[in-house]
Amino acid sequence: MTSDPLLRASAQKAIAYVIDFQDPSGGGWRYSPKQPGDTSVTGWMFMALKSAQMAGLRVAPERYKLVERFLDSVLDTKTGYYGYDKPGGASPAMTAVGMLCRLYLGTRPSNENLRKGGEFLKKTPPASQFNMYYLYYATQAMHHMGAQNDCWDTWNLGPNRNGKGGIRDFLIEKQIGGPKMPPI
Amino acid sequence: MRGSWDPSGAHADDGGRLMMTSLALLSLEVYYRHLPLYMSEAGAAR
What we know:
The structure holds two protein chains of two kinds. By secondary structure, chain A is an all-alpha fold. In chain A, about 55% of the residues lie in helices and about 0% in strands.
């Protein structure tokens, strides 16, 4: 992010470490080297690779192919939902992680599974579960879904577009010192 | 405490106030930090 050349060698080493930990057959990551992956750790590691690439470090494209393979193995194509280490269940958090990875890997918002996932997240608005991990991933996934199925406006501003029930006002209201708190 | 978010919900016990506040900030900043990856066929991303 800073493009500081002093950080480059260390950052490239960190990426080598991440790559060494990837499961070479299933394509995901978990807690020990090359262990079969879960969607949560895979999401964080893939974001690290993508951020590294955007910062000008080298990431071999085969690594992304492997991530696609992992995502395919946890996606329920009937519902568009992502599971933790296999398809099934109805986890909005895992679905948000899976969707964000797919969007970064080049799948378009008009993709059927992404549209179904977007509908699922719309039905799981911020106030329905105060889980910052979910909100962080869902906010990014919905931002990149953009106008598809009105994903971003619904997520950001709520179903009536007046702020009520959307992420923006929800987070501001929860901040200490925010509008609902007495003046300090 | 002012400006932070109280630990609450999944992962809050491990990540604490710093994780809550970081994730909240990164969420609120999403429009400033990330250009939308796609301009949707359904219309310009807003």
